Amino acid sequence: MIGTEQLVDEIIKGLQDKKGHRITIANLTEIDDTICQYFVVCTGNSPSQVNALAHSVDDTVRKAGGGHPISTVGTQHSIWVAMDYADVMVHIFLPEEREFYDLEHLWADAQLTELEDLD
Q1: In this structure, how many other beta carbons lie within 10 angstroms of the beta carbon of residue 35?
Q2: Global pTM?
Q3: What pLDDT digit, counting tens, does each position of 60-100 carry?
C-alpha cells in the first residue's frame, strides 16, 4: 500500500492525465477532527470528462499500488463524483456545481494548494 502523500500525487497524475482543471489540494492534517487528511478537488468540463477523470484516478492509483477507493458516488450523472480513499477524498465537479458548493473553502483553516492547469 502506498503512503498518503504518494496517494495524493497519484490522484493528481490521474486528474492531469485527463486534463482536469483547477486542481486544488486542501491539506487538513493540522485540523482536528477531520474525516480525512486531504481533499483533492477538480473540475471537468462535461459529464463525460468528469466520469473519465474518476476512471483515470482509479486506474492511476490502482497501478501505483494504492488499491481502489472505499466508495465512489456520483458516476451515474457525473455532475459531482466523490471518491473515498480513507485518508484522501477526491471531488470532481462540473463548473457550476463546484462554484455552488465551494467545497474547498468550507475548510477555511486548511492549507490550500492550487495547481496550474497543464493545457
Answers
A1: 10
A2: 0.95
A3: 999 999 999 999 999 999 999 999 999 999 999 999 999 99
| Residue 25 contacts residue 113 (beta carbons within 8 Å) | yes
Alpha carbon 81 to its chain's center: 9
Cα dihedral value 114, 43, 73, 88, nearest 10:
-10
**Of 78, 113, 83, 111, the residue nearest 93 (C-alpha):** 78
CA distance 23 to 44: 10
Rounded-to-integer distance, Cα 62 and Cα 1, Å: 10
Please tell me the total number of residues recorded for the chain in this structure: 119
Radius of gyration of the chain from its Cα atoms, rounded to whole angstroms: 13
Pairing of strands 38-43, 88-93: parallel
Q: Are strands 88-93 and 111-114 parallel, antiparallel or unpaired?
A: unpaired
